[in-house]
Design goal:
The protein is an alpha+beta fold and 238 residues long. Helix 1 packs across helix 3. The radius of gyration is 23 Å and the shape is elongated.
Length: 238
């Protein structure tokens, strides 16, 4: 016989999936649910914990449980995959829009990092990623022309990494990444569908070739409701 909290969990899942409680709405309180299902609050708490673990709700301290969007895309943090590789793997209906492309003229932190000598030019490309007709990612990439020449808009609309590896014959080695949550910029709001959102998730990367030469800086800005950022971790006791 199935434990009662699992029966309640299954019923709550069915109701969430049937849109009885739409995304961003609150579930009834633990006390209300315990009355509804004629059980203890501890049993309800177990069912809610399972809902939270499986990505149906987010528990908000002092408020209750809010239904979250299950249709989030899992983007790996570790590893180096191009956007095209990810969307192909996830079978997403995606479109890339090149917003801006050209050389950086003024000296800034990015040119200082990427320039190996005074003659080295740095170019940039800004691309909007549209998934299922929603503009939800803004990618800002910076390249050292010493390693990667200024590419055409058509190539940038496809896969830059495909060109780098298969046309230039370069080997992408490793990357250092950081993830932060920031307030959307004016550019974020102009280029992305950000109505109703007050935060944006930013992944900044320094990407190196296999010979340890830094050739790319990237800033990938994601609307927070559509993504899970996942990683694999192994415990090291040494």
């Amino acid at each position: 016989m199935q434990r009662k909290y699992l029966t309640i969990y299954d019923d709550l899942v069915n109701k969430i999936e049937a849109n009885v409680w739409p995304v961003s709405t609150m579930l009834p309180s633990e006390n209300q649910l315990s009355i509804q299902y004629s059980t203890s609050r501890e049993t309800i708490r177990k069912a809610l914990d399972l809902l939270s673990q499986n990505g149906y709700i987010q528990k908000v301290r002092g408020k209750g449980s809010i239904v979250i969007d299950m249709n989030r895309f899992s983007f790996p943090v570790s590893g180096i995959e191009s956007y095209t590789e990810l969307t192909n793997k996830l079978h997403l209906n995606s479109k890339t829009i090149v917003s801006d492309i050209g050389y950086l003229k003024a000296e800034n932190d990015k040119t200082k990092l990427l320039k190996s000598d005074a003659q080295d030019s740095i170019w940039h490309v800004t691309r909007v990623r549209e998934i299922s007709n929603e503009k939800i990612i803004l990618d800002k990439d910076y390249f050292s022309e010493k390693h990667v020449p200024l590419l055409s808009k058509e190539i940038c609309e496809q896969s830059i990494y495909d060109y780098i590896e298969n046309e230039l014959g370069l080997v992408v080695g490793f990357a250092q990444k950081e993830i932060v949550v920031e307030t959307p910029t004016i550019q974020d709001r102009e280029l992305l569908d950000m109505d109703g959102f007050s935060n944006i998730v930013v992944i900044r990367s320094q990407v190196y070739l296999d010979d340890a030469n830094l050739f790319q800086l990237t800033e990938s800005r994601h609307r927070p409701d559509k993504f899970r950022f996942v990683d694999f971790a192994r415990r090291d006791k040494n």
